[in-house]
Amino acid sequence: MTDERLIDGKAFAADLRARVGALVPAFRGVAGRAPGLAVVLVGEDPASAVYVRSKGKATNEAGMESFEHRLDASVSQDELIALVERLSADEAVDGILVQLPLPDHIDDKAVIAAIDPAKDVDGFHVVNAGRLAVGEDAMIPCTPLGCLMLLKDRLGDLTGLDAVVIGRSNIVGKPMAQLLLRENCTVTMAHSRTRDLEDVVARADIVVAGVGRAEMIRGGWLKPGATVIDVGINRVSDAEAGKTRLVGDVATAEALAHVGAITPVPGGVGPMTIACLLRNTLVAAHRRAGLADPEGL
Ligand code: NDP
């Protein structure tokens, strides 16, 4: 029997991908072409290569055009920026994603700054971070957008709820806090210098954990009935099974005795990220074509 308190991100993501795919033919009909997503991979990092492959596959499955650019790890920053500028000017490309991390000799910020903000489907460009902060239409980073979708699906209106976001990265924590504020939550941001984290977590109706520390947040810290979104992906060794396994930032088994709902790891937030990337690509394609945002996404 499945536990109703476990939020099934995998099923939600599959549904979102299907909804995005169902809207592609209408765009194609108006624009005369499919939405296009360009993904740039530098070097041979095996995890990044897996992500890029699955992004390409998901893009094609949604009926969109996928453009993959694989560059050698020795590529210069200028060469990479020149490619990003070409993609920014390419009419067939609606979304550009540069897979991070980049090699040490390349400055991430300079590369992201070269992406046309209208095609910045990762939402990392400062223009999009700024638009999100001031409440204008922005490209919203995929992981926090996926977290928000899961929260709204489970809780409906979030107005007035106490939300604690643990982690303040530009990719997860900061945009997540902005999104929750936009939904009228009372938002607290916690980080490595936060005092008495346990007490901060104890008053939260919503906890979003994006830290990167295996099972750091214990079940007993959580307010009874809280909704927990566990963004963390941590590989730990399982001596008994003689292999490694993935765990989140929250001790899920313990938390189940306290929470109203929680995302499992794996199968919670993870699958939402690619689904939101497809969603953002379709939205970018509509905006670039002068069309209203597709409804229901
Ligand atoms: P970062 O390392 O950039 O940020 C981690 C944040 O956690 C920092 O703000 C840091 O605080 C804070 N932190 C570290 N230790 C503590 C502590 N003891 N108590 C409270 N806060 C602490 O990580 P990311 O934001 O990139 O990723 C976070 C996690 O989410 C990782 O496990 C990553 O793998 C996962 N992730 C999952 C994705 C998905 O698709 N599901 C996508 C992206 C990330 P400070 O700022 O003070 O250093």
Key terms:
297 residues, alpha/beta, Rossmann fold, 2 domains, five-stranded parallel beta sheet, three-stranded parallel beta sheet, 10 strands, 40% helix, binds NADPH dihydro-nicotinamide-adenine-dinucleotide phosphate
Q: What report would you give on this structure?
A:
The chain is built from ten helices and ten strands. It has helices at 9-31, 46-61, 77-89, 108-113, 126-134, 142-155, 173-182, 197-202, 252-255, 270-288; strands spanning 36-42, 65-71, 95-98, 162-166, 186-190, 206-209, 227-230, 234-238, 243-247, 261-262. It has a five-stranded parallel β-sheet with strand order 5-4-6-7-10. The protein is globular and about 55 Å long. The mean pLDDT is 97. The structure holds NADPH dihydro-nicotinamide-adenine-dinucleotide phosphate. NADPH dihydro-nicotinamide-adenine-dinucleotide phosphate (NDP) is lined by residues 143, 166-169, 171-173, 190-194, 197, 210-213, 231-234, 269-270, 273.
Could you give a quick summary of the protein structure above?
The chain is of the alpha/beta class and 297 residues long. The protein has ten helices and ten strands.
